[in-house]
Specification:
By secondary structure, this protein is of the alpha/beta class. The protein has 10 helices and 7 strands. It has 2 domains: 112 residues, Rossmann fold (3-Layer(aba) Sandwich); 112 residues, Rossmann fold (3-Layer(aba) Sandwich). The chain is globular.
């Protein structure tokens, strides 16, 4: 069994979902007392968020690289960044480590393409919804990506940072998200990417008939496939 290295803590709530999902799938595959071999570096999200807010992506990249090198030294066979937004510095990280990076957008795009989806909506932080590091990565796989209008992007972003990342789950926010999802479907989206690892804590498939793709679950499954391959 291979060892997966997780850069987590962004936020710890979603990282706990990664840990649970990966171990559940490894146990289901191997049975008995088996669990996943995981190395984890969990960062202080307050420090990461401060760098995001100030636009100091160079220092944010250094933080990710340091974490990845610690995981490499700990014996990890591959690295995963347990958040969508920090994939903004993924290429900087890849240039400094000797291990493969399992990119969350690549894993998500692979599932979408296999399911025959061509046009997909994207929800996430403002960084993820507005910048090319994520949308462009999806486009490489032939996907057309739709995002909410500016005012809706700000609402989605605020709920993530002010509520979900501090463990608050509010029904009012869920209804706002579902309204935005419905609007994106009306604009031609065949499905919606939950492109922030916290969104799945608020909205899941039971809340809507529109197909949702939870990047946390997809990324975790990619980890399991790597571990067991």
């Amino acid at each position: 069994m291979k060892t997966i290295g997780l850069i987590g803590g962004m936020s710890w709530e979603s990282t706990s979902s990664y840990y649970q999902l990966i171990n559940q799938e490894v146990k289901a595959a191997l049975g008995g007392l088996h669990s996943a071999k995981i190395a984890l570096v969990s960062l202080d999200f307050a420090e990461v968020e401060a760098l995001q807010s100030s636009g100091n992506w160079n220092q944010a990249a250094e933080m990710m690289i340091e974490a990845a090198l610690r995981l490499q030294a700990a014996g990890a066979d591959a690295i995963m960044i347990c958040t969508n937004t920090m994939h903004k510095v993924a290429e900087d990280l890849e240039a400094q480590i000797d291990l493969p990076l399992l990119h969350i957008a690549d894993a998500t795009a692979k599932v979408l393409v296999n399911d025959g989806v061509e046009t997909v909506a994207l929800l996430g932080t403002a960084f993820t919804m507005q910048e090319d590091f994520y949308i462009g990565r999806l486009a490489r796989h032939g996907l057309k990506v739709i995002t909410p209008i500016e005012a809706e992007r700000q609402l989605v972003h605020q709920v993530i940072y002010q509520e979900l990342c501090v463990g608050k789950i509010r029904e009012e926010s869920r209804q706002v998200y579902l309204s935005i999802i419905n609007g994106l479907s009306e604009k031609g989206a065949q499905a919606v990417i939950l492109g922030c690892t916290e969104i799945g804590l608020l909205v899941s498939q039971k809340h809507t008939g529109i197909e949702l793709y939870d990047t946390t679950a997809i990324h975790a499954q990619a980890a399991v496939e790597f571990i067991l391959n």
